[in-house]
């Protein structure tokens, strides 16, 4: 189901603590758009609790980092095929990942706990079709 992604110019930063996957995602999307920020700066910027960061605080942090963002339900998977990428997804309701590319039937994404990965799009979308839990993606782009 998973395989290592072909080396592509996608930023990747491993989460430094168990509850910092969102920080890593913020750092990755910022670097993708040419913004260099440190984990220390993000820890000061982001309101965290012991479990991590709420989707509300991720969006608030994106705004402070000068990004426009929109939160949508991941059940609208076809939206990902048309969305501006990268985007941040709340993976399995408790872990943030960055989706970088969807091409040739595969999803290229960064899991802050694991690395850059590639997954068959049918397997990826199948994770959400029958789920009763709501899954979310955060579409984003830099402010001009």
UniProtKB/TrEMBL annotation:
Gene3D superfamilies: Cysteine proteinases. Pfam families: Peptidase_C39. This is Peptidase C39 domain-containing protein. InterPro entries: Peptidase_C39. Residues 15-135 form the Peptidase C39 domain. It comes from the Bacteria. One of its GO terms (molecular function) is peptidase activity. GO terms for cellular component: membrane. GO terms for biological process: proteolysis.
């Amino acid at each position: 189901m998973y395989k290592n992604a072909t080396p592509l110019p996608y930023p990747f930063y491993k989460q430094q603590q168990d509850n910092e996957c969102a920080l890593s995602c913020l750092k990755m999307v910022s670097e993708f758009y040419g913004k260099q920020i440190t984990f220390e700066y993000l820890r000061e910027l982001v309101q965290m609790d012991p479990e991590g960061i709420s989707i509300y605080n991720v969006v608030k942090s994106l705004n402070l980092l000068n990004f426009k963002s929109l939160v949508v339900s991941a059940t609208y998977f076809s939206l990902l095929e048309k969305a501006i990428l990268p985007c941040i997804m709340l993976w399995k309701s408790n872990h943030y990942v960055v989706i970088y590319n969807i091409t040739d039937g595969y999803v290229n994404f960064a899991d802050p706990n694991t690395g850059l990965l590639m997954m068959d799009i049918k397997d990826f979308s199948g994770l959400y079709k029958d789920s009763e839990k709501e899954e979310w993606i955060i579409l984003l782009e830099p402010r001009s």
